[in-house]
Every structure is written in C-alpha cells, then in structure tokens.
Amino acid sequence: MTLPKFLIVMVYSKLLLSRLNAFDEVEVQLEYQIVPDYDADPAVGRYPESAPASQALLGHVTGDIVDTEFNYEAVRLRVEAIGEGD
C-alpha cells in the first residue's frame, strides 16, 4: 500500500511535535520542518535533515513516539501532525 507523501515524515515535511516528559505527558508543542542542510534556519523552525532529531523522525507517521536528541538533550517526541512543506 502506498501512502500519500504528506502522511510520512520526509524532507520538507512540516511537523507539529509534542515533547513528552517521563510520564508521556505533553510538556510543550513545537513546529519543526525538515529541510536540506543548506536551507536550514532553526530560528524559524527549519531544521537540517542531517540533525539527529531530523534523522530520527524521517519515515515516521502521525502518532509515533520517537526518542532522539534535540539541542544536545535527550528528548521523547510524539508526531502530532504532518503537513506538506514548501
């Protein structure tokens, strides 16, 4: 079965992520877009595809929980929504 591109996290996907605490409760939500390294600008939510969090998120779908590193800190993220990027 083939899913439409925007249902799977890929480069240029715009994501709504929830950062979860140790009890899997939402601490904060953030917008995150995976872009090619040359187009990255973390100040506006555009993160390079080579970043550990980006690599960990690629291929996931809505509802998945991903344990990764973000800003040099171990985090647990839940994919809340996936949209098409630029």
UniProtKB/TrEMBL annotation:
GO terms for molecular function: DNA binding. This is Uncharacterized protein. One of its GO terms (biological process) is regulation of DNA-templated transcription elongation.
